[in-house]
Design goal:
It is a single-pass membrane protein. The chain has 326 residues and is an alpha+beta fold. The protein folds into three domains: 92 residues, Thrombin, subunit H (Beta Barrel), CATH 2.40.10.10; 96 residues, Thrombin, subunit H; 101 residues, Pdz3 Domain (Roll), CATH 2.30.42. The protein has a six-stranded antiparallel β-barrel with strand order 1-2-3-6-5-4. Strands 7-8-9-12-11-10 form a six-stranded antiparallel beta barrel. Strands 14, 15, 16, 17, 18 and 19 form a six-stranded antiparallel β-sheet that branches. 43% of the residues are buried.
């Protein structure tokens, strides 16, 4: 009959994406940063991405780059309620942050695993951009990118991120939101779209580690001070570089380094002249192989002299990191 989406119709049998959204969607939240307006005492909310509830007591996971330099955020639930969220943990190397709101009885998304994830599997990226109900994009897993292993790094600490590569569209609105499998389990955090058809998500197994450390108090429950430069970054591998070069002939001829996906407006990197699409190859004279190298240097230095490849040229910019006190 008309409007029948039961299992005995073709729509009922094949609308698996809609089923996933019905299960996972209610736990997706919208996250806004509060920005002070110059010369007034007002703070305005600026849309910054999504997050998702992993505990019914208000524990939310999102990207570290969605949190940016804030220690408190505005969180909007699907039912329209708004809460102030406190940033309670952050792992910039893996681009994960935990935010807590004061509320109970909330819907949550079960955590899956990426261990048995196969290329060609269907995935759904869900986000909660401002004033819209959930936005949904579907796609497949292209592959699992293992940055550190491909770069031949043996040191466990330095063994850089793995990413889930997908062609599901990841944008500012669903960044920080869940990448979900067809069982409605979250298998990654939507992180960034390097170019059309090449999106990256952070595997949920990192989030499990992060939550465990948070629970046992090992995760730096946000250090009292941290340094912030305001970029979301991706560790390059030869494979990712060749993908990006195929889409963009201007992409520099490098196979390692850090790709700058997005520069936060008015951040230290923006002020220094860093641009979206830059590749950082050296900081303070040291070669940069991955995101962890940038963060390691940042821990030790507030001033970063960064060598950047941009459209066939190498330029040096001076970034003065912001010290954030929590």
């Amino acid at each position: 009959g008309a409007g029948n989406t039961g299992g005995n119709t073709r729509r009922g049998a094949f609308n698996f994406v809609a089923d996933v959204v019905q299960v996972a969607g209610p736990a997706v939240v919208h996250i806004e940063r509060l920005v002070n307006v110059p010369f007034t005492r007002r703070a305005v909310a600026v849309s910054n991405g999504s997050g998702f509830l992993v505990e019914s007591n208000g524990l939310i996971i999102t990207n570290a780059h969605v949190v940016g330099n804030q220690s408190a955020l505005n969180v909007k639930l699907q039912d329209g309620r708004e809460f102030e969220g406190q940033v309670i943990g952050i792992d910039e190397a893996r681009d994960i942050a935990a935010v807590k709101i004061n509320c109970t009885g909330l819907p949550k998304i079960p955590l899956g695993t990426t261990r048995d994830l196969r290329p060609g599997e269907w995935v759904v990226a869900i986000g909660s951009p401002l004033a819209l109900k959930n936005t949904v994009t579907a796609g497949i897993v292209s592959n699992m990118c293992r940055a550190g292993k491909e770069l031949g790094l043996r040191d466990e600490e330095k063994r850089d991120m793995e990413y889930i590569q997908t062609d599901a569209t990841i944008n500012v609105g669903n960044s920080g939101g869940p990448l979900v499998n067809l069982d409605g389990e979250v298998i990654g955090i939507n992180s960034m779209m390097a170019s059309a058809g090449i999106g990256f998500a952070i595997p949920i197994d990192y989030v499990r580690d992060f939550l465990q450390q948070l629970e046992h108090g090992q995760q730096t429950r946000v250090q009292h001070t941290r340094r912030w430069i305001g970029v979301s970054m991706l560790s390059l591998t030869p494979e990712i570089s060749s993908h990006l070069r195929a889409r963009n002939p201007d992409f520099p001829d490098v196979t390692t380094g850090v790709y700058v996906h997005k520069v936060t407006p008015d951040s230290p990197s923006d002020i220094a002249g860093v641009q979206n699409g830059d590749v950082i190859i050296k900081i303070n004279g040291k070669q940069i192989n991955g995101v962890s190298d940038v963060l390691e240097t940042l821990k030790q230095n507030q001033v970063l002299n960064a060598s950047i490849c941009r459209r066939g040229r190498t330029i040096v910019v001076r970034i003065i990191a912001e010290e954030i006190v929590h």
